[in-house]
Design goal:
It is a single chain. The protein is built from 3 helices and 5 strands. It is of the alpha+beta class. The longest helix has 17 residues. The radius of gyration is 17 Å and the shape is globular. The two termini are 19 Å apart.
Length: 186
């Protein structure tokens, strides 16, 4: 996607965006290209949050990446995977088998609770506590110590890593886009 709308304090943020795109491309058949005149495109903007719409929409698809708060490879990949078509892991249709979402602990103001709604998802691989798309245990809690997500199967699992694509993240993208062996790792 085109980064022309992103005003940067230094080149580091832009480099992180390109590195995040390159990482997704390295392990899948997803490719990010600079926009020429394509009707459908991704616009990355410096806003006050880290957010993106889920899935491809006709025309412009916005990714919001606050600088510096969203400037980590994992966070950028998380937002790009929303555009690629993925909900949060804790929003999967089968999530109740794997986590308890404690809605009473989630802040009421704003629309943060929407990030915990269950969606009808394809669930192309197993539920993944280690997914870059999973929220941490304390996400959007009313108090900094209140858990909003509690794992059921592995009660001590660390949730919400933002350092890498998990093997299941890669497998899920490959399955959704039917990536064959010769279309990635170029």
């Amino acid at each position: 996607g085109s980064n022309s709308y992103f005003t940067l304090q230094d080149a580091t943020s832009k480099d992180l965006m390109y590195l995040s795109m390159a990482t997704i491309s390295k392990f899948t058949c997803i490719r990010f290209e600079t926009r020429a005149r394509e009707y459908d495109y991704v616009r990355i903007m410096n806003m006050t949050t880290c957010a993106a719409m889920v899935g491809h929409n006709s025309g412009r698809n916005d990714v919001f990446l606050h600088e510096p708060n969203c400037m980590s490879k994992g966070t950028i990949m998380h937002e790009l995977l929303h555009i690629v078509g993925f909900q949060h892991e804790q929003s999967r249709s089968d999530r109740d088998d794997y986590v308890d979402v404690i809605f009473d602990n989630i802040v009421q103001q704003g629309s943060y609770h929407l990030n915990f709604n269950r969606h009808d998802t394809k669930n192309l691989v197993v539920y993944d506590y280690n997914s870059v798309m999973h929220y941490p245990r304390l996400s959007w809690g009313k108090k900094p110590y209140l858990q909003t997500i509690i794992p059921k199967i592995f009660p001590h699992a660390r949730l919400g890593q933002r350092s890498r694509l998990s093997p299941h993240d890669i497998e899920e993208v490959r399955n959704l886009y039917q990536c064959s062996e010769n279309t990635y790792n170029r």
